[in-house]
Description:
Layout: E1 5-9, H1 15-20, E2 30-34, H2 37-45, E3 51-58, E4 62-63, H3 65-72, E5 78-86, E6 89-93, E7 104-107, H4 112-122, E8 127-130, H5 134-142, E9 148-151, E10 162-168, E11 175-182, E12 194-201, H6 209-218, E13 224-231, E14 239-246, H7 252-264, E15 267-275, H8 293-307
Parallel strand pairs: 1-2, 1-3, 7-8, 7-9
Antiparallel strand pairs: 3-4, 3-11, 5-11, 6-9, 6-10, 12-14, 12-15, 13-14
Amino acid sequence: MSATRYTYLGPEGTFTEAALRTLPEAATRELVPMVSVPTALDAVRNGDAAAALVPIENSVEGGVTATLDELASGAPLMIYREVLLPITFALLVRPGTGLSDVKTVTGHPVAQPQVRNWLRNQLPDAVWESAASNADGARLVQEGRFDAAFAGEFAASTYGLEPLVTEIHDAENAETRFVLVGRPARPSAPTGADKTSVVIWLGDDHPGALLELLQEFAVRGVNLMLIQSRPTGAGIGNYCFAVDAEGHISDRRVGEALMGLKRICPKVRFLGSYPRAGVSAADVSTLRPGTSDTEFIEAAEWLARSQDGRA
């Protein structure tokens, strides 16, 4: 395995590359762009890269389905950390292009909902066609295939383009969450401000099936930060659920919730426990009464004493 190589959703000039370069270790790694999320993750699976950075959630559109589906299938992988990147777009054009010249535009499909209102107001007659990534859209503009692309302003110089308009976004404070994914190993030590990600398969479709799953978290005071259903491919009505829970697998409440899920679900895939980006232990709300590690330990000791006749 190449311990110095990180892959990412390319080509050069994507928001994913910008997010990857915020990591301190990126300065000492070979950063290799890949054409898609699956190819970036497969490089990790087959040992060609130590880790891959891929987008997993957007504050406007929600979960990135390509990443969620890849993490739920194939050889297991593990999330080691997350990166939050504020997202704002620039309209990139070839030199000499004016706004009235823009008849065709492109960008990543996730970008379109983030600029839809601006596009409707400023370029109501422009035709949109999706690209593999925002940077790939910039490349297509460079090649003359489209008049303009929505991408990061930083991508302009890479592709010989100019930012015709900058700071484009329909939603204030939009951001995308990226995850650094590697091969399975022991999770990092808890920080007090952690997140645990799992994929859960329902055993059968019956009234209350999803409620039973959620109760495993609720009764132990585990807060859910994301839950998204994804089809399993086994037919209509067959779903798995990608879940982000607050806490670390070594926290008693989280560990017991995962054990509860394992008892009632045919399959649970652990995707990792890792520090939450931009959050410290001081920022985490106080636990509900009865859900701290101390209280779980005291309850276990009480049960042992009761079993021994010492209660």
